[in-house]
């Protein structure tokens, strides 16, 4: 997409046009969270507008919570708020993400119906069997949140296709509605890890080595069968994991 420019024939005020130019650069990732905006003088000269117009545009973006000003340093793209995950919450994580005011999206990276993994098959009680492996990138506010790897027994989910995993809710709905499973228990293990260079790249982390948080989750039905084993790999900067315990 070509960079937008100021249109002096437009009825839209110049400061709103500049605000839209900067907003587009933020939304497309050209300006990333914590990046410094071009200095006011540079914006003034680049777009041939007054310093007052530049300041009005920046004020507009500050009102939209997109930009913050640090005294003596300049104007910066506001860092995205962390997603909060309640580990004992009554709602699944998708609902928690959206309830926190964040957008919730997914990118399907890989769908493999003939995957062999001793660790995954042992968790699923399917030793020696092929399993379905799904790899997805989960995003909040269009920024990488975690890498999700899902392992499923082929014998329990014979009709799954890649399209079942291109949104956040299709598969979870299918577990109960189409396949008839009722969730009985979930076991969650959490440990800190070092991200590989490839994992860091997918999560949008430039400086490596970097720390991550690995969540391994096994879901059982009411008969005690392991029906889903998943690995969620978080970057430490995007999500806060909260454990709320009530006193008895």
TrEMBL record:
GO molecular function, one term: DNA binding
Alphabetically ordered keywords of this record: DNA-binding, Transcription, Transcription regulation
SUPFAM superfamilies associated with the record: Chorismate lyase-like, Winged helix' DNA-binding domain
Claim: Cytoplasm is one of the keywords in the record: no
Domain HTH gntR-type intervals: 12-80
PROSITE patterns: HTH_GNTR
One GO term (biological process): negative regulation of DNA-templated transcription
Name of the protein described by the UniProt record: HTH gntR-type domain-containing protein
InterPro entries from the UniProt entry: Bact_HTH_transcr_reg, Chorismate_lyase_/UTRA_dom_sf, Tscrpt_reg_HTH_GntR, UTRA, WH-like_DNA-bd_sf, WH_DNA-bd_sf
Coiled-coil residue spans: none
A Pfam family the protein falls into: UTRA
Superkingdom of the source species: Bacteria
